[in-house]
């Protein structure tokens, strides 16, 4: 009996001793940052793979749960992003024209730390400087992609003025369904210069990051590349509203219209209605914004005036982070106006000034030609007089040269 209690006593003492030892160990426990931090570029136009190894000092700590805190500089948001993971790799999106900065810490927890979390005081860091290749100032300007009525995507850009002549630009893209980057399927050109790309036959997928790289070559060397990463459902431009109806009461007017055809959900649409009224005391214009997919508007109006309305639509910011206004619908008017086709007017407006100048010059030439012809027809008599005068002069003073005369 005495032996048994003695055994229990020793066991308790040993347990206490172990606990004490562990806690002193824990109190002073520090952990090193990870090792071999490497960033690799699989050629996905900005999606980089980050990998690291646990610190060597951890290899004997079986009772520890090891995790990592990865921090990287998000150049799109201009801030540090931070994630915690138990894996040893992570994939993140970077703008390859900017510095890539990544840091990792080691995190320890579990019985070895008395269930508190310990973070390494240091981090392992890799800074990858932005490449300085490419002729300076040749990046494209205003690169944007528009998802037309959620049917097909079109990307556009403007050339920098510093771009050398005979430069050839190329657009590459990648998304996770593709093994490797592909080039634009159909370039849009203006005067032989590439200004855009249409993805019509094989549509780009929605709700996934699509990475773009616009680079190229010139006689002076490679052009500075431009990178972009976006999800196309955030860049919708709706089709113009086609069906507008106007109903008039004694002093009221009701305008209603239908959602544009296509895949854009109606509740995501917001509208802008432009109201132009014209009366004896002049013109007046106002616009009204309607959200929540509302497709009608009732107004009290002055019936002695002409009222014209047109509508355009846009995907609301709750449905997409960026979106573009659709084109305006055709106007509907009250009282109904005869189809005043605005096209001819537009054409006249669109005629550049130099055509007017050319027409004016031609008119002046024709006019002067007419005047000259008239003189030519009238002149013979006068000319004959002059001619005889000259001959008589020369006859009298034959030595006089024509230059002195
Ligand atoms: C270990 O954790 C227990 C319970 O959370 C706490 O009472 C004890 O003080 C901790 N020991 C040390 C050394 O932190
Ligand atoms: C891990 O344990 C082995 C054997 O017990 C020892 O030789 C080695 O030095 C230890 N490593 C570290 C980092 O403590
Ligand atoms: C443009 O980018 C693509 C895709 O990364 C690459 O294959 C090609 O070599 C680059 N061209 C130039 C001129 O840099
Ligand atoms: C509209 O015109 C009619 C006749 O010219 C006039 O009697 C009426 O007061 C006008 N209404 C308004 C709102 O000006």
From TrEMBL:
Q: Which GO terms describe its molecular function?
A: cytokine receptor activity
Residue intervals of the Fibronectin type-III domain = 240-336
Give the species this sequence originates from. Answer: Oreochromis aureus
The protein, known as = Fibronectin type-III domain-containing protein
UniProt gene name: IL13RA2
Q: Which SUPFAM superfamilies match?
A: Fibronectin type III
Question: Which UniProt keywords are given for this protein, alphabetically ordered?
Answer: Glycoprotein, Membrane, Receptor, Signal, Transmembrane, Transmembrane helix
Q: Where in the cell is it found?
A: Membrane
> Family, per the entry?
Belongs to the type I cytokine receptor family. Type 5 subfamily.
Against Pfam families, the record matches this protein to:
CRLF2-like_D2, IL6Ra-bind
Give the signal sequence positions: 1-26
Membrane topology per the entry is: Single-pass type I membrane protein
> Where does the UniProt entry say this protein principally localizes?
membrane
> InterPro entries, alphabetically?
CRLF2-like_D2, FN3_dom, FN3_sf, Ig-like_fold, TypeI_recpt_CBD
